[in-house]
Amino acid sequence: MSFEFATATRIIFGAGTVQQVAPAARQWGSRVLLVTGHSPERWNNLHGEIEGSGAHCSTFAVEGEPTVDLIAQGLQQARADKCEVVIAIGGGSVIDAGKAIAGLLTNSGEVLNYLEVVGKGQPLQNPAAPFIAVPTTAGTGSEVTRNAVLGAPARKVKASLRSPFLLPRLAVVDPELTLNLPPSITAQTGLDALTQLVEAYVSIRSNPVTDGFCVQGVPLVALSLRQAFHHGDDAAARSDMSLAALFSGLALANAGLGVIHGFAAPFGGMFDAPHGAVCAAILPYGMEINLRALRARAPESTALGRYQEVARMLTCRPDAAAEDGIAWLRGICSQLEIHPLRAYGIADHDVPTLIAEAAKASSMKGNPLVLTPEELEEILRRAIG
Ligand code: NAD
Question: How far away, in angstroms, is 14 Cα from ligand 1 center?
Answer without folding.
Answer: 20
